[in-house]
Design brief:
Distance between the termini: 135 Å
Number of helices: 7
Strand order of the largest sheet: 2-3-1-4-5
Largest sheet: 5 strands, antiparallel
CATH architecture of the largest domain: 2-Layer Sandwich
Shape: rod-shaped
Amino acid sequence: MVTMEKFGKMCKEKMMEEILLRFTKHPNFVITSFMGTSTGGLEQLRRGLKKSRANYFVVKNSILKIIFNKMKLEEEISKIDGGMGISLCGEDIVAACSVLVNFSKTNDKFKIKGAVIDGKRLSPEKVKELASLPSKEVLLARVVGGIKSPITGFVNTLGGILRKFVYVVDAIKVNKEKTQSAAPAAPEAK
């Protein structure tokens, strides 16, 4: 027979497995403290994060400490204080950080505690710096523009050279025609 204590322990273990699986699928995440933030505010945050393919969930401190211990993120355990939430970043990490930072600006109780991006621990200040970067689409557009610009210049230069070559050839032709028409006609043979 399963007692309430065993049932609670089984639920906690299942919850930890589920959260560990989420971290495995999405290794880039931001740690936040939401204590004092309204439920409506957190729902607004979730909707904003959904656009950047990120998500946000609340987790019990005791479970988060165990998970960080298993993930060998002992330094992050010290950040756990009060109500904790995790934002698992999608493909566009900058967009997710931007949503979180903007939300923290309008909700003073919501605090960014740090992040783990590509296995590196980031301070809240670094998360804010990351959020200030242009979006992935803007960066890609800049790269394409940077690549396109020299090619366009090269094509324009070649076009200019060809135009000048045509002008020179045309000028030579005109000059020869003038020279031939200006030369006295040879006497006809009798």
